[in-house]
Amino acid sequence: MSKINRREFVGLIGAGAATGIFTDETTGADNNAGRIYETSRDDGRYVETAGALQSYLKHLNPKLAFNSQITAPDFDSWRTSVRDKLLELMCFPDQIPVQPSPKLLWAEQRDGYELQKWEAYPEPYSVVPFLVLVPEGVSSSSPAPAVMCFPGSTSSKESLAGEPELDTGKPQAKKHWETNRQALHYVKRGFVSVAVDNPATCELASSLQPRSSMAECMLWMGRNYLGLSVFQKASILKWLSERPIVDSNRIATS
Known about the structure:
By secondary structure, the chain is α/β, with parallel strands linked by helices. Helix 1 packs across helix 3 and helix 1 crosses helix 7 (225-241). Residues 1-29 have low confidence and may be disordered. 31% of the residues lie in helices and 17% in strands. The radius of gyration is 21 Å and the shape is globular. Strands 1-2-3-5-4-6 form a six-stranded mixed β-sheet, sandwiched between helices. Strand 1 and strand 2 form a beta hairpin.
């Protein structure tokens, strides 16, 4: 995939990434539903650091904020600037040597489609398992559109594919989510669908370090969790777009 295509993907998936950072849900407390940060100080300042940061974010006027009155020529320039900034913020690793191509581990027939398990190797030391669901009748002579399916937070690729959860014994693994079978719904409608875990969750989780502390450590490494997640998925997207059974002009993310 060319550099501009990778930027297309980053531009799409990165939009709105900061939404909800300072909501009460981040506290993990059950009794915070519906609460907001408040201050009784006359100067409107917050003793709570989170309250101060939320107020800062609320009044921030980003340089690249979207302007609904933008003209068509200016829109292209604005979109390019947003992509450039997103790539900068993602902190993708530099100068990665050529890595092995994804490897097929196994394939099993399901009702109306084939379930495949693959491994991707996006960078040195890294293995990222993922699932591919291929509808019957799809081939290099009859390619199909494709959809990359990403779970919310710690949901699994298995739940996306309508498969039983893996017995990993790791704390991030959850029971099957009946309402989150994106990949299964898409393959039933003729799409090649790909299901990927988020980093440090489910099959990618570690019993030695939780996701939150790993994400903090990444900042000291000059990287970040969101950037790692996008980089892994972009690597699989590049491979997917080159598959002869996929119509590379019709690939969506979900």
